[in-house]
Batch of 3 targets.
Target 1
Amino acid sequence: MKFTELLNNIDSIVEKERYEKKKREIFDMPEETADELYIKSCDEDDE
């Protein structure tokens, strides 16, 4: 994604991160590391 696209979408990106943080707090889920997120994203591409 281009940097300008990220800047244009910053509000939705921040809102999504707030939602994910709240979800982790509610369900007491451990925060995923960058490595875990990368592995998940690779697994999704394989399907």
Target 2
Amino acid sequence: MEIYIFVLAEIVYARYTILIHKLGNMGIVAGAIECGQLYIYGFFRGAGR
């Protein structure tokens, strides 16, 4: 399960980097929202075991 979250985080990070290059400050905001959702999802998956 931890490996899955790690891989998912890598994918999100790559997309986040691309968004920053394309959108500038808006990319940072979009990436932060997406990362926040990932952390919340990961937390609930971990707590739900």
Target 3
Amino acid sequence: MLQRVLLGVMVFGGVAVAAPLGYTDIVMRILNFLLFMGILWYCTANTFKNILATRRAKISKSLEQLQEERQAAKEEKEQALRALEEAKQQASQIVSNAKQEAYLLTQKSDQQSKTAIEKLIRNHQINQEKESERVQQEAIAEVLGDLFEGAKAEFATPTYMHLIHQKVAK
């Protein structure tokens, strides 16, 4: 670096000598400024380098920390997405099971209803048959009772049958 400054002084020094006398003031000021900057750079270069290196290290550390946080956030997001997908699968499984259970329950209740209806129909038919037999027996008993209590007349079998049919038909 010092070599560059000295080279600059030599180049501008040659220009300063070749320039007319009225313009030498500005050239000297430039040379003084460059010499001042060179000395300043020479004295403070290590300090600036250390400051910049420290700043670079802080930025690098901050960048690494941000990348780690980004990676952690990305992993959390992936984990949350997996949990969401699993929850969706469980929800669809629950809905499927509920539909299947509802279908089975309706089938079961339909079967129970059919069985109960068939049982009621059978009981009703049995009750009708019993009631019909009871009514017939009462009618026969009434006709026979009237005949035996009445005139004690003797009738032929077709006459008995005709009287019984008339009584039952009422």
